[in-house]
Amino acid sequence: MHDFEDEEDPAAVVPTGEDWDRLAELRELFLSSEGGFQTVGYWNSRRDFELYDATFAERIGWKWDAVLAELAQRGRLPAATNVVDFGCGTGIASRRFVAAIPGVKHVYLSDRSKQATWFARDALKLQAPKLELTLHLPRQEDPIDVLLASHVLGELDAEGRAELTALARRAQFVLLVEPGSHLLSRTLGGLREELLDAFDVLAPCTHAATCGMFAAGHDDDWCHFFARPAPEAFTSAFWRHFSTRLGIDLRSLPYSFLALRRKGEPLETRGVRVLGRPRLLKGRALLDCCDTTGVHARTLFERDAKKLFKRLDRSGELLVADARVEGERLVEFRPLGDA
Question: What is the pTM of this model?
Answer without folding.
Answer: 0.91
